[in-house]
Specification:
Strand content: over 45%
Radius of gyration: 11 Å
Largest sheet: 4 strands, antiparallel
Number of helices: 0
Mean pLDDT: 93
Structural class: mainly beta
Number of strands: 6
Low-confidence stretches: none
Strand order of the largest sheet: 3-2-5-6
Helix content: under 10%
Distance between the termini: 13 Å
Length: 71
């Protein structure tokens, strides 16, 4: 969160110590990968152009994908 965002994406984890975050453009190209992201960590998106991205969150319990809009 927040979604939409301007520069930073905040990671809020519930009951999980750390996750792997992969950000992809809508064509599926990986533009950012952070391994071992901790609770309340921020991911800086300021260097990426405005648009829609897929945030892929990998946990020990599975994978979740969320679409995020950057202004």
């Amino acid at each position: 969160f927040p979604n939409p965002t301007t520069n930073y994406l905040n990671i809020s984890l519930e009951g999980i110590n750390k996750v792997d975050i992969t950000i992809l453009d809508l064509q599926g190209k990986v533009i950012l990968q952070n391994l071992g992201v901790l609770n309340n960590e921020q991911i800086n998106l300021s260097s990426y152009i405005a648009g829609n991205y897929i945030v892929k969150i990998t946990t020990p319990f599975g994978i979740e994908e969320i679409q995020v809009t950057k202004y």
